[in-house]
Amino acid sequence: MKKEMKIKDQDGATVVEFALVLPLLVVFIFGIIEFSLLSYNKAMITNASREAARNVIVYRYPELLPDEIKTQAKNVAEAYCFNHLISFDGNTIPDVPPNSPDFIIGDENPDNPPGDSGDSLTVTVKYNYQFLIFPNVMELIKGSYTNSILLQAKTVMKFE
């Protein structure tokens, strides 16, 4: 008779424990998702900078002018970012990737225009990643947290 009473008294304990653990579990799961997306987008902008640099440095005749190098590298990297970055912004323009990455293309020696065999080409892609969940969670607990982080990838290759 005494055993039945103990079991009867603990009917709501599981529900209370679950209610206490659930918010932490949800934050942990969404944290994994958030930082997985961040890591994926970092890998994609790294690949975009590599693709842009590789596309421009291969030998071609006639050689590209410095402005053509910048335009072509920017177009290749933007296309790669547009096709591979994950963004949940519904207001993106179809021909421009979300938060348009910034591209810096240059030579180690600014007096000599890039394009000669052996010259270095640096392609830097910057992308402002917008967090999805954490700014909202921090607002709930009255903390301060930035809602974005700047991701940057830099590739240096030599012209062929």
List the helices and strands and how they pair.
Blueprint: H1 2-9, H2 13-57, H3 66-84, E1 102-106, E2 120-130, H4 134-140, E3 148-158
Antiparallel strand pairs: 1-2, 2-3
Helix pairs in contact: 2-3
Quick description:
49% of the residues lie in helices and 17% in strands. The chain has helices at residues 2-9, 13-57, 66-84, 134-140, and strands at residues 102-106, 120-130, 148-158.
Using brief descriptors, characterize the structure shown:
alpha+beta; 3 strands
Describe this structure as you would to a colleague.
The chain has one domain (2-158). Helix content is 49%, strand content 17%. It is built from 4 helices and 3 strands. The protein has a 3-stranded antiparallel β-sheet, with helices on one face. Helix 2 packs antiparallel against helix 3. It starts with a helix and ends with a strand. The model is unreliable at 90-102 (pLDDT under 50).
Q: What's the helix-strand series?
A: HHHEEHE
Query: How many β-strand runs?
Result: 3
Share of β-strand residues = 15-25%
Number of domains: 1
Distance between the termini: 88 Å
Average of pLDDT: 75
Q: Major beta sheet, specifics?
A: 3 strands, antiparallel
Class from helix and strand fractions: alpha+beta
Computed CA radius of gyration, to the nearest angstrom = 25 Å
Strand order of the largest sheet: 1-2-3
**What is the number of helical segments per DSSP (H or I, 4+ residues)?**
4
pLDDT < 50 stretches: 90-102
Specify the overall morphology. rod-shaped
Kindly state the percentage of residues in helix. 40-55%
